[in-house]
């Protein structure tokens, strides 16, 4: 808006250049700009000089800069991209973070005017604004202090307001903004605070006034970046090139700084994370940021639409990224925030993907693995939903059995085997809760599982032994059905057959919602997450199994209580940074005991993805 | 408004084989990707499409590494192609001494710089609002929210940005232009109408001769309105 108002004039009279009115200043600048085309650069160069940053500008210089910017706003149509190139590049280099609010406002005004005046400058203006998402390097550290936070709020509120202002004047600008923002996302190797700040801006765009147009690309771009970070994490939480000897490295040659042999490998990891720059830490902070964003979406009632976008992104990227360990918890948390809508939708979508033969086998296997892991781990999912999904799976499996009169062949019927394994896995977790409800118990008992499990295709032999054993044990206790065979797998976690059906990606051992190992994110997930240990403990009155699955011979274990032993479904060594339970930290494993621990723990553990198996997965 | 036209086009949409599951959705997607982009072939910005029919049910499969198949369609397209000297209408979103910013059809931004605004219009700040007021016709005012008619100078096809001009006589606030043209066309009606016109012209005279305070103009306007109503009834 033109600023030819009375008050403006008064301000000017107080300053040194009192003699000139706004209009005269604008004319002067206009003349200076047009003079360049005729070869006279003197005034123009002087103007450009005012724009260059000075180390510690005095109030006069600040006033001069502000005046220059305001005058330029009034004469944007005279700015030519060729003749006034030095002016434009000087403007481009200006960062809002370096100045006070008056200069910020003047600069924003100029940017908006430039964007609206000429189509050539729209991309330029948007890029300038996006550059201001993160502060210049020397101010990055201030962000943690209060001054820094205040500054950040001032800058970002203006930047986002500028986007809205430009969108009003140039309706198609938001369309051009999306690719610019995505292109300029910091790489995963950038510093943590920088990525965090940038993603914070992206989320702000998503929920802002132009979110309708821009938001659709923001979340998927963030998810993509999260996956990139996720797959870089090795089991030791650090960036690694050679994954082969990873576990040996972690436990055996623990070259710990203070030389304490008994120090938990986890604490080693913890300390490394505290440096703040590791990939795991970045991922943790980003996921936490996104969790907070999801919470705010829920409170403003938008979670359903945001979830649709998230789900699309999930289907396209996370579902088939088998190395993704934690990114999927975004979907989990969104479902937890809205179990009736999002929670149910997620389960339905996964079921549909499994039963429809439109999708390639790996995708279907992955979908059913997600389904099984989700329904087992999500505390907020109703038993009724689990029962109905089980029914669908059973029906599909039965149908498959009846239409395939062939003998066991892991490779050929991999989708079928993955379905059976999903069934069994879900029942391991949910048998009790289903049996407790009379109606669901009836439904469960009526499900034709026996014909499936005793079919020629022999799923009990092919599926993961641990799952099968646990399932049969629970089924026997619940009197689900009678099996004649007893299976003795000799504590095998996996067998050749399961490996065969799992394929190259080891989808037989794919349990995507196994406990989240990132500290901050885990604290959000915890209230909604079902732990195997709790379920085991609840079933203690069965009498059929011992709580302490480990007949450990090492005396160290004697100190621990039962819960600690079975706590979580993971190898103790990988509990990096989970210090929410002080007891856990007292657990120590000395490297020499590792092989024993590994084997003995098997009895009490549900197969977890996070284990140092011999699977090629970790290669 | 000029610049809008409906074209019938025979198009062939080439689809990737993976889309053969749901061809209609894929076609709609492809057509939607055309929206709000300028197409040289069609000579205009595609604003809307309506599929008439599939020309025939057969699609030719291209030979190549990936065998795309081409679905022939007959589509009605709503195109927007402003050419110089066309008259367009849009809503004013920003006014400054240097320029007027307009949005046309809700998506295209247009700018009219000060040098393309005829002498008649003068920039003022009235009641804390920035306006362009006509010197010759007091009621002819352009402010934020006014729909104006302007002529096209040029069109930037990439960003869909229009450079406009208010130089031609029949440009300005549409509301005023319509009213003004109405009054002119009723000259051969009854004398009463002529009288009211006379009233208006005297009003105009006043505004040119001397400065009328806002209150005066308002009162005069009300008066003339009342008289008009009386005369008409």
Description:
The complex is a heterodimer of chains A (619) and B (233). Chain A is built from 30 helices and no strands. Chain A has helices at residues 6-14, 22-37, 42-51, 59-73, 85-92, 101-117, 120-131, 146-169, 173-183, 192-207, 211-232, 246-251, 265-274, 279-299, 303-318, 329-337, 339-355, 361-377, 383-403, 414-436, 438-446, 449-453, 459-462, 465-478, 496-502, 519-525, 532-538, 562-566, 582-586, 594-601. In chain A, helix 20 runs parallel beside helix 24 (465-478). Chain B contains four helices and 14 strands. Chain B has 233 residues and is α+β, with helices and mostly antiparallel strands. In chain B, helix 3 runs antiparallel to helix 4. Chains A and B meet through helix 6 of A and strand 6, strand 7 and strand 8 of B. Chain B: It comes from Stylosanthes scabra.
Tell me the total number of β-strands of chain B.
14
By DSSP (H or I, 4+ residues per run), the number of helices of chain A equals 30
Which pair of chains has the greatest number of interface residues, and how are they split between the two chains?
A-B, 25 and 26 residues
Please state roughly what percent of the residues of chain A sit in beta strands, choosing from under 5%, 5-15%, 15-25%, 25-35%, 35-45% or over 45%: under 5%
Strand content of chain B: 35-45%
Average pLDDT score of chain A: 78
Query: Biggest β-sheet of chain B: count, sense, barrel?
Result: 5 strands, antiparallel
Counting DSSP E segments of at least 2 residues, the number of strands of chain A comes to 0
Helix/strand class of chain B: alpha+beta
Number of helices of chain B: 4
- The domain tally of chain B reads 2
Shape of chain A: elongated
Under the CATH scheme, which class of the largest domain in chain B?
Mainly Beta
Straight-line distance between termini of chain A: 61 Å
| Largest sheet geometry of chain A | none
